[in-house]
Amino acid sequence: MRQYEERAAAELFEAVYPRLAGWCRRLVDDDGTAHEVAAEAFTRLWARWTRVEEPTGFLYVTAANLVRDHWRRMERERRALRRVSAEQSLHAQGEPDDPSVRMLVQSLPERLRNPVLLYYYADLPVREVAVLLGRREGTVKADLHAARELLRARLEGHHDRIS
Question: What's the pLDDT tens digit per position in 116-149?
Fold first, then answer.
């Protein structure tokens, strides 16, 4: 940045950051997260400084998007905690579980194990599994299919030995 651009950026930061962070604070109900969101919004602005016509508007729109991402992440965490709590209460009631299936799932290669755990055990839809793993939905579906086939083959072999 040139010197006058740096000065303009510093003035904008001094003028807008406190209000932006306060606005984010009211939305996320956490000081640390609010400051992280506001700082990230400014970081994204600095990366596009010469191309942004209305920096204040850009900051608030960016912060709103980051807050929405935060809310989505918090909701996913709440759902996961509810599922874990429900599973723990079921296990406390004496629900039998098959350790051999758990061991088979754990023995899958990581590429196949992670989608299986997220899809079947965390009960996430394929779309969310794909986002979390950074893969395409079709790839996740193919990995789930491959995992099922591998588990089926291992279980059939296991049952053949028993009978």
Answer: 888 888 788 999 889 888 899 999 999 999 999 9
Q: Where are the alpha helices (DSSP H) in 29-125?
A: 31-47, 55-92, 99-107, 110-116
> Cα–Cα distance between 60 and 15 in angstroms, integer?
13
Largest CA distance in the chain: 82
- Report residue 83 CA to chain centroid gap: 16
Nearest to 144 by CA among 98, 84, 136: 136
**Distance in angstroms (rounded) separating the CA atoms of residues 21 and 17:** 6
Q: What is the pTM (predicted TM-score) of this model?
A: 0.52
> Residue 124: what residue type?
L
Distance between CA 144 and CA 43 in Å, rounded? 38
